[in-house]
Design a protein that fits this description.
The chain folds into two domains: 69 residues; 156 residues, Collagenase (Catalytic Domain) (3-Layer(aba) Sandwich). It contains seven helices and five strands, in the order αααβαββββααα. It is elongated, with a radius of gyration of 23 Å. Helix 1 packs across helix 2 and helix 4 crosses helix 6. By secondary structure, the protein is of the alpha/beta class.
Length: 239
């Protein structure tokens, strides 16, 4: 009988040690990943940067667990799957004036809320177009939200309702695709997510794609707002 109890105690201790060993391994790995992101400078400085790094790692782990679990080179995966910024079709539409009200869906990922806020701030700082935040969706010309769609090869989209007679926007809905932007496999940094938000807001302003070093480059999200983008907006709204 004593031998049985000894074996049970040994098994309990072994399981307990294994559990805590696994716990500390995962905790240290998580802290290491957060540290690498933070000290790389990709998530910003100070406590806000730490918070972004933590959220990025959490989102990446969640995306990994919810999908096929295969890692691999982000750049290779992006090239293989043909991920683009969006599938925008040029229409020449715009607003009456270089300004629009905007509403951020409060239920979306916090990473997207911050990206949208930074993107709106960046466009407002150009002086070429002004977005004004409103408190309700009904007041908004532009609604900023998200999607989680693996069936499209786009990191974001801007869906517009346009008056066919005047070719003026009536409403625009911008969506960032968390399937790509928050997945470990595709390797989007916080800056590239912000660039994507700036790109889609560019469409919400009325800009089309180009193949220059521009936030509106069709092939990706590697550029923030450039001087040529500012001039394009001013030209678009020049009466």
């Amino acid at each position: 009988m004593k031998t049985i109890f000894s074996m049970i105690r040994f098994m309990i201790r072994a399981i307990w040690s294994l559990f805590w060993g696994l716990f500390w391994t995962l905790a240290l790995s998580f802290a290491l990943m957060v540290g690498i992101l933070f000290f790389s400078g990709k998530t910003g400085k100070g406590m806000d940067g730490v918070s972004r790094a933590v959220e990025t790692v959490v989102n990446q782990v969640e995306a990994y667990l919810n999908r096929d679990g295969s890692f691999g080179s982000p750049s290779d995966q992006t090239a293989q799957d043909g991920v683009t910024t969006d599938g925008h079709t040029a229409t020449g539409a715009r607003w009456d004036q270089p300004k629009a009200t905007v509403y951020i869906d409060p239920t979306i990922d916090r990473a997207f809320v911050r990206a949208y806020q930074e993107a709106v701030k960046a466009w407002n700082q150009t002086g070429a177009f002004t977005f004004q935040f409103v408190k309700t969706e009904e007041e908004a010309d532009v609604i900023l939200t998200q999607m989680d769609d693996a069936t499209v090869s786009a990191a974001g989209e801007a869906e517009s309702q346009t008056n066919v007679l005047t070719n003026r926007f009536q409403k625009v809905t911008v969506r960032l695709n968390r399937h790509y932007l928050l997945s470990w496999k595709y390797g989007y940094s916080n800056q590239r997510i912000v660039n994507t938000a700036e790109h889609e807001l560019g469409h919400a302003i009325g800009l089309d794609h180009n193949e220059e070093e521009s936030v509106m480059q069709s092939a990706g999200s590697f550029y923030s707002i450039q001087e040529m983008d500012i001039q394009a907006v001013r030209q678009l709204y020049k009466e």
